[in-house]
Amino acid sequence: MKNHVLRPLWVAIAFVALIFLARYFLVPSDFGVQGESFTYNYHRKSNVQEWKDFQVKYLGSDVCVVECHSENGESLMASPHAIIECENCHGPGVDHPETEEPAAMSVDTSRLLCIRCHADLNYPGTARAAIPGINPDEHNVDSECVECHNPHNPDLEEM
Amino acid sequence: MSCSRRTLLKNAVKGCVAASLPVSAFKFLSPAEARAAVGDPAVRWGFLVDTTKCVGCGMCVKACKKENEVPYDAAVTRTWVERYVITRDNKSHVDSPMGARDGFTDQKIDKLEIAPEDIAKAFFVPKLCNQCENPACVQVCPVGATYKTRDGVVLIDRKWCIGCGYCIMACPYGVRFFHPKYKVAEKCNFCYHRITKGMDSACVHACPFGARKIGDLKDENDPVTQVIMNERVAVLKDEYGTKPQVFYIGLDHNVR
Question: I need a labelling partner for B34 at 20 to 30 A (CA). Which of A4, A118, B122, B166 fits?
């Protein structure tokens, strides 16, 4: 066969080979179908472990109260606020137990935190209606809630 | 140049064989050796939302954003809470300011004041990724950057995602968004790093009222599975055929 017919063919073959060569180096070895379905399980396998290794930030009241802060735990656990996780107000613990760095914790004592539940919305039939509520625009507007109410023992009788 | 039909066909066959040689030297997929287990196939994560217990405090949204390093002041979130107020004239009012990151503290809905006597019913509906059995978002990914694990959670490979946004458009529930920092698609993954360590998802953990629960649907003694099997639950947008794995108690027909 004549040379000018073959020459473009070699170019085409070289081009296809180049694509596969690039694929060989660019696609990770663990990339493929990791299960039954090409549609849903086609991915890089090591990414699953990467997500498992993501850092946990919220440790849980069990860690806070049982292991270190029992003095705060006892009064709190007897109050209606026992259902609230420590870290909801005190911020995520992350590595606080290891470093014992109090500065790493930032307690939120703002009105905005309390009125998440205690702003009266008056929606009949919701659980919100059962929570004691105030109108944030009228109830001691210039004060923080914690100046009068103890969040660890919110009993109004013992105020 | 003269070329008979016979030589043309002969050369075409030869050319095809030559072109297919390098194809067999490399493989499109690496199926067999990579087919080892991903996650524990004996587990199927499912979620239960009890809308009757939700008070709209938004603690779940705050905890989720901090746990998963979602930019706190950006208007994106992996989970959010919607407030529905249905008035007596049968109009549905919905809002979710900043995804309810700071809860619902105002009677006004989208600056609209509704008199308490006009309210027929009102409720809060937490939303999150449904980790569908047939996830539309995974089907449309052109690069294999999002996938379903063996235990049923849909994950996104941040290193592999090209940020094309097809999945964000494909999700019928609107749970996906563009991560402002990593410039890739982002969504709830049931806190995969927590559930695989035996902990609850951050939102489940933060909810003081037990409105959110996560469990193993393959374990029939799991409290979540018990409720889904024995009580009246519903899923969002069942008609899309995505088979969501987030089940709702007390879902109203006004919820979209």
Answer: B166
